[in-house]
């Protein structure tokens, strides 16, 4: 019901969706987010990127993010898959799937999970371009996106 | 993941069933400090406060509080305490009052909540008695000092892992501290119990050209993340790497801040801000 995975292989949205809903008839809404590798970022013409992570801590942080989402909204389940290793433009990199009885909870929780993942999960991207390789820098907009959810206590009554 | 005994499998609060646990002799000791201006401490010592004898009142308040613990802490069992003691010590170096409490019984569940409650309420009473002359008093250092009896065995407070005593219930984890040496050269001697395992990721790993390092706690000026960071940045050629950019730190795979204490065997990871997703 609360599934996280860090893997090199591609994922299949349909299979993941079926796994999330398997055996249940109380799911009224499912929201999915898929992140892809772009061919432009800090420099144009990104040819590929390599994703590094902190094995062990990553899985724990992803579980914790799902637990925080489940504490804020009445969710029925969630699946969070993040890929690591070498990826090319057009490749899917991250999947968030959230199910709930009504749509609002699933929409909000999906966005919350991605905002937290961006600032709390130990992944690092190195981009490979024609003009060289570099580690991607943090973005202020990601920090701001996470900050708007406030602390757990403040938003407990949403 | 560790299970919280006060949560059932649905995550709802419940009182733990202790009816099958054996009666054993149990004791818990706790402490708290009330830090204050030295003039306030002097006034307590000379019994010059308008509300009367601060120490005698705080002592009675602590004893009464221990007996009322299950009324205050929702999932605490009512216990038949056989002894409650509250000792107060004036410490002019703090300056402030140190409170030491102990609770005992022969029963089926631990008494640390009672000892903590006694220390808390004794501290609050001192605050109440003295607030007319000092509004900036601080109540600090509330913690359990030691526990004995029961299934989990003996335990004593050891925030920096400097005593083996704290792990006496689990001899496999007994700690040894290496003697302080003058050498500051970087050594890689993993698997020694007094070592911290320090790990580096992403751009930081590439700048340092290494992904891990063992550092002895005895090399640090204090057992904290900040002291470890100081030590790392003092290594030849590393100052720029550790000070030029924002770094995050995790201890035992949980993100922490610089004030976080360290103990032997900790895995400490430094890394740049994360960029996944």
TrEMBL record, chain A:
Keywords: Molybdenum cofactor biosynthesis, Transferase. It is an enzyme of class 2 (transferase). Its EC number is 2.8.1.12. InterPro entries: MoaE_sf, Mopterin_biosynth_MoaE. Heterotetramer of 2 MoaD subunits and 2 MoaE subunits. Also stable as homodimer. The enzyme changes between these two forms during catalysis. The gene is moaE. This is Molybdopterin synthase catalytic subunit. Pathway: Cofactor biosynthesis; molybdopterin biosynthesis. It comes from Nitrincola tapanii.
From TrEMBL, chain B:
Keywords: Lyase, Molybdenum cofactor biosynthesis. Its EC number is 4.6.1.17. One of its GO terms (molecular function) is cyclic pyranopterin monophosphate synthase activity. The keyword Lyase applies. The active site is at residue 128. It catalyses: (8S)-3',8-cyclo-7,8-dihydroguanosine 5'-triphosphate = cyclic pyranopterin phosphate + diphosphate. GO terms for biological process: Mo-molybdopterin cofactor biosynthetic process. Residues 15-150 form the Molybdopterin cofactor biosynthesis C (MoaC) domain. InterPro entries: Beta-grasp_dom_sf (IPR012675), MoaC (IPR023045), MoaC_bact/euk (IPR047594), MoaC_sf (IPR036522), MoCo_biosynth_MoaA/MoaC (IPR050105), Mopterin_CF_biosynth-C_dom (IPR002820), Mopterin_synth/thiamin_S_b (IPR016155), ThiS/MoaD-like (IPR003749). It is an enzyme of class 4 (lyase). It comes from the Bacteria. Substrate binds at residues 75-77, 113-114. SUPFAM superfamilies: MoaD/ThiS, Molybdenum cofactor biosynthesis protein C, MoaC. Pathway: Cofactor biosynthesis; molybdopterin biosynthesis. Belongs to the MoaC family. HAMAP family: MoaC_B (MF_01224_B). Homohexamer; trimer of dimers. Catalyzes the conversion of (8S)-3',8-cyclo-7,8-dihydroguanosine 5'-triphosphate to cyclic pyranopterin monophosphate (cPMP). PANTHER family: MOLYBDOPTERIN COFACTOR SYNTHESIS PROTEIN A. This is Cyclic pyranopterin monophosphate synthase. It comes from Nitrincola tapanii.
């Amino acid at each position: 019901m609360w599934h996280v995975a860090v893997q090199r292989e591609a994922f299949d949205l349909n299979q993941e969706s079926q796994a999330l809903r398997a055996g249940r008839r109380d799911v009224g809404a499912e929201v999915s987010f898929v992140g892809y590798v772009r061919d432009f970022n800090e420099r144009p013409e990104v040819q590929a990127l390599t994703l590094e992570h902190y094995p062990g801590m990553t899985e724990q942080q992803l579980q914790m993010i799902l637990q925080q989402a489940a504490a804020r909204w009445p969710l029925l389940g969630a699946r969070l898959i993040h890929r690591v290793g070498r990826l090319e433009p057009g490749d899917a990199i991250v999947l968030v799937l959230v199910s709930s009885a009504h749509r609002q909870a699933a929409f909000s929780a999906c966005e919350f999970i991605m905002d937290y993942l961006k600032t709390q999960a130990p992944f690092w991207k190195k981009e490979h371009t024609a003009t060289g390789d570099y580690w991607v820098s943090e973005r202020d907009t990601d920090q701001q996106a996470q900050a708007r959810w406030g602390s757990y206590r403040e938003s407990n009554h949403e | 993941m560790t299970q919280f005994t006060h949560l059932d499998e649905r995550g709802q609060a419940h009182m733990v069933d202790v009816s099958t646990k054996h009666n054993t002799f149990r004791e818990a000791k706790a402490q708290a400090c009330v830090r204050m201006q030295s003039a306030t401490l002097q006034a307590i010592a000379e019994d010059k406060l308008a509300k009367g004898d601060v120490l005698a009142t705080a002592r009675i308040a602590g004893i009464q509080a221990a007996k009322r613990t299950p009324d205050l802490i929702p999932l605490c069992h009512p216990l038949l305490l056989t002894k409650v003691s509250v000792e107060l010590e004036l410490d002019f170096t703090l300056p402030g009052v140190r409170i030491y409490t102990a609770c005992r019984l022969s029963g089926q569940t631990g008494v640390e909540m009672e000892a903590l409650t006694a220390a808390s309420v004794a501290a609050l009473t001192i605050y109440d008695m003295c607030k007319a002359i000092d509004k900036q008093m601080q109540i600090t250092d509330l913690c359990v000092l030691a526990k004995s009896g029961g299934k989990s065995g003996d335990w004593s407070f050891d925030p920096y892992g400097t005593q083996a005593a704290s792990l006496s219930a689990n001899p496999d984890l007994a700690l040894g501290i290496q003697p302080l040496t003058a050498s500051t050269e970087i050594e890689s001697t993993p698997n020694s119990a007094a070592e911290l395992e320090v790990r580096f990721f992403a751009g930081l790993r590439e700048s340092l050209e290494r992904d891990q390092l063992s550092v002895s706690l005895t090399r640090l000026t204090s057992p904290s993340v900040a002291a470890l960071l100081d030590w790392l940045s003092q290594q030849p050629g590393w100052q720029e790497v550790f000070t030029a950019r924002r770094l995050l730190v995790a201890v035992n795979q949980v993100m922490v801040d610089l004030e976080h204490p360290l103990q032997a065997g900790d895995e400490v990871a430094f890394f740049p801000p994360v960029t996944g997703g």
